[in-house]
User: What shape does this take?
Amino acid sequence: MKLKTLLIGCFGGFIMLNSCTESPSVKDYSAYVNPFIGTGGHGHTFPGAVVPHGMIQPSPDTRIDGWDACSGYYYDDNTINGFSHTHVSGTGCCDYGDVLLMPIVGKPQYLTTDPESQKLAYASAFSHENETAEPGYYSVFLDTYQVKAEITATKRGAIHRYTFPESTESGFIIDLDYSLQRQTNYEMEIEVISDTEFCGHKKTTYWAFDQYINFYAKFSKPFAYTLITDSVTMDNGKRLPVCKAVLHFNTKKDEEVLVKVGVSAVDIAGARKNVESEIPEWDFDKVRKDARIAWNNYLSKIDITTSDKEDKTIFYTALYHTAISPNLFTDADGRYLGMDLEVHQGDTINPLYTVFSLWDTFRALHPLMTIIDPNLNNQFINSLIRKHQEGGIYPMWDLASNYTGTMIGYHAVPVIVDAYMKGYRNFDAHEAYKASLRAAEYDTTGIKCPDLVLPHLMPKAKYYKNAIGYIPCDRENESVAKALEYAYDDWCISIFAEAMNDFENKAKYERFAKAYEFYFDKSTRFMRGLDSNGEWRTPFNPRASTHRSDDYCEGTAWQWTWFVPHDVEGLVKLMGGEEAFVEKLDSLFTVDSSLDGETTSADISGLIGQYAHGNEPSHHVIHLYNYVNRPWRTQELVDSVYRSQYANNVDGLSGNEDCGQMSAWYILNSMGFYQVCPGKPVYSIGRPAFDKAVINLPSEKTFSIVVKNNSKSNKYIESVLLNGKALDTPFFGHQDIVAGGIMEIKMTDHPTQWGSNNSSQ
Assistant: This one.
């Protein structure tokens, strides 16, 4: 991974570290966060203002199209198109970029630009030297207009502060037809309420087929205005609808103009109430202070001790990224837009959330939540259950209460089952179980989604795995990846069935959980595609990749062969026993990293050999050494990932952040452990990164990991004590954390036999 040097301007947010703290006695964890991490490379994060799991994410947009426009901001760019109010964090697909606001000085330039251009007519040049980002706050100087822009936010509202030069031609552009990836706009309306208020509504079709956004904006300064609502004809002959407002006013030198913005998926009244209830005054600094306090409250859930300032920044930025999404989707009055795209009356005590990147986040993000905030995780689960009730099935990738049908598996199931097995059951378990069975069966009836989405949300692969026991690769795309993930999800259902005393389904899904065996080719020792005649697909190349159009999903046989987290013992047996398994696993990290194919998946990144840390299917693999008596290999490889895949730089992530998953992997591993199989409340011990990590549990207890002889060179474990008793296995249980206590880990500079069968008992 190429690591760029972060410009000094990126750290502008660290200059006034104590200016927004409640008191000198309050620890300012936010001081260690660098929101620019992941804004370069292919991290796809954004640097704008947001509070934990907030509905609104005001942030600068520097480009419109392309893979690296997924969050709207890319660090290599030098112009800003404006500040839109909705963004996704670290995704590989793009949407949002709603309600763009841009200050202007001079004759307004608002004509629609060439569809190929990344730059709008009213864009401004900027320098990173004059740009600051910190949790809950963003600022930049717009060179073209000589305007300082500042943004902060609450859960449902944003407040902007702009410092203008002296001019008789100051103003703003509100661009409603703008969106990231130039989405198809419908139902665009913009309305002037008074000489200080605007509102509007639109529906867009893109990744989310029916995304609704309503906004209300109030300005601290009266304005005159011009509405531009005519369609325009582009060079390619395509007519585009236009919906913009240009505001006009005079300003004195250094005059501040503030803007409050609320958004809602329900209606304009909801957007107005959202901002008025949370930002009743024009006190920008108070909102900024409150946002920082909210972040410090979240970041204080884990307290680490290290002398390495870079690692501390990486850690707390990672923890910050775990709380961007899922996003609040319930208005201040309790209403929300359901998966049936109808308005429902809920409540704010048990709000609904959206943006569930479950293919990614079931692996580490949600397990992390079961440790640091199980109550919030239960709210996420209740949201998923409601989405099943309203839309007909659990979502795979829910965006703005839309089924997108993106990615594979039915991973709401492990999120729910993992919480249940850990004892967090503040949800209707019987309803969740019924919905889990529904997700595993091929049944297209009763699902409320667009026709184009349905075959992805309910793929025929489910029919094949249930009816004939395997998924033929000549009948279903990504057959091997789907089959392996279905086998794991079905295992989760089997243990859920046992808990529900449904022993018939327990036996059925235990059988389905073994389906991974069909795809293992003993001659090559890889998981391979089987056609409808029961023959292996040929030719076979384990490093071949055709993005989203082969037997795997965003990966190759090298990465997918290891996805049997629920039955590692069974996989070891398939491989020919422990020694053969270790030999094969070793080769994963040492073979050539090259990929073959004309359209290889860009998601296969962060390669160590063929281990791909930049994408999620690999995330559990390093810990498999603990299951075959080679814990020192887990320790040294986890250490190598710290050093090669995470950095305090704009491209300090080796792949898409993916709504907190990439960061959650780091958080758990840097504390010293990882959950290989969500659903089994067991953690695998790796290589702790810090001298001490204290988890401040919701029960007001603490669980501490104290590391002795820790250094960059001492990456191997010599011994472990759990509450004063020797721990000779590289595993411990979730209840060990919940009960509170202390784990003491002694490190050394050479591999040891600790944690293997040969270690002293």
In short: The mean pLDDT is 94. The two ends are 42 Å apart (CA to CA).
